[in-house]
Design brief:
Number of helices of chain A: 0
Low-confidence stretches of chain A: none
Shape of chain B: globular
Shape of chain A: globular
Radius of gyration of chain B: 13 Å
Mean pLDDT of chain B: 93
Order of helices and strands of chain A: EEEEEEEEEEE
Strand content of chain B: over 45%
Oligomer: heterodimer
Number of strands of chain B: 11
Order of helices and strands of chain B: EEEEEEEEEEE
Low-confidence stretches of chain B: none
Mean pLDDT of chain A: 94
Chain lengths: 115, 115
């Protein structure tokens, strides 16, 4: 069941540059998307979300873009900092789970930001 | 800052034994969840809970699993007869509204090892 896919297991960028993490989905019933960050031995931490009625949401250094026709979303981190090094998960919620809160997660992308 | 607290951080149990994983959600949150992550795999939804009822459960959440909110603060996950394949990191989460329409806050996880 690969409804949410993060095809890049890892990404390495230089401090100060842009990090772009990608996520693809297959379920057309998904209408809300979230990005979580996870450090080792900790739980996922919410970063940013976007509703399907929007194509962009920005919060400080983090921007999420949604391309519904391509069923693709991306997370941009500008500028990247060493403290951003973590595993990033894309998650999605379906209209059918709008009353239950079920989230479907991707496999995660490990981001390394080099000083 | 309010946080979701899980105990214990690590639980080792023998196959066939019952385990109870405990969680204290954020106090004003009304929706509660359990997820798990088997080593090297994605975070998987187990169950969502609202108003003292299960609102949605996954195929993983079979008769061996149960959840309970025994008092006003705790939220537990019980596995009646553990199997080797239950070894995973279990995450509790809570949200003020339905997650997927707002962010869910995750605990730091309980690593369950079944031997």
């Amino acid at each position: 069941d690969q409804q949410v896919k993060q095809n890049s297991p890892s990404l390495s960028v230089q401090e100060g540059r842009i990090s772009i993490l990608n996520c693809d989905y297959t379920n057309s019933m998904f209408d809300y998307f979230l990005w979580y960050k996870k450090y080792p031995a900790e739980g996922p931490t919410f970063l940013i979300s976007i509703s399907s009625i929007k194509d962009k949401n920005e919060d400080g250094r983090f921007t999420v873009f949604l391309n519904k026709s391509a069923k693709h979303l991306s997370l941009h981190i500008v500028p990247s900092q060493p403290g951003d090094s973590a595993v990033y998960f894309c998650a999605a919620s379906s209209i059918r789970s709008s009353n239950t809160g079920k989230l479907i997660f991707g496999q995660g992308t490990t981001l390394q930001v080099k000083p | 800052e309010p946080e979701v607290t899980q105990t214990p951080s690590h639980q080792v149990t023998q196959m066939g034994q019952e385990v109870i994983l405990r969680c204290v959600p954020i106090s004003n949150h009304l929706y509660f969840y359990w997820y798990r992550q088997i080593l090297g795999q994605k975070v998987e939804f187990l169950v969502s809970f609202y108003n003292n009822e299960i609102s949605e459960k996954s195929e993983i959440f079979d008769d061996q699993f149960s959840v309970e909110r025994p008092d006003g603060s705790n939220f537990t996950l019980k596995i009646r007869s553990t199997k080797l394949e239950d070894s995973a990191m279990y995450f509790c989460a809570s949200s003020e509204k339905v997650a997927g329409r707002t962010e869910a806050f995750f605990g730091q996880g309980t690593r369950l090892t079944v031997v």
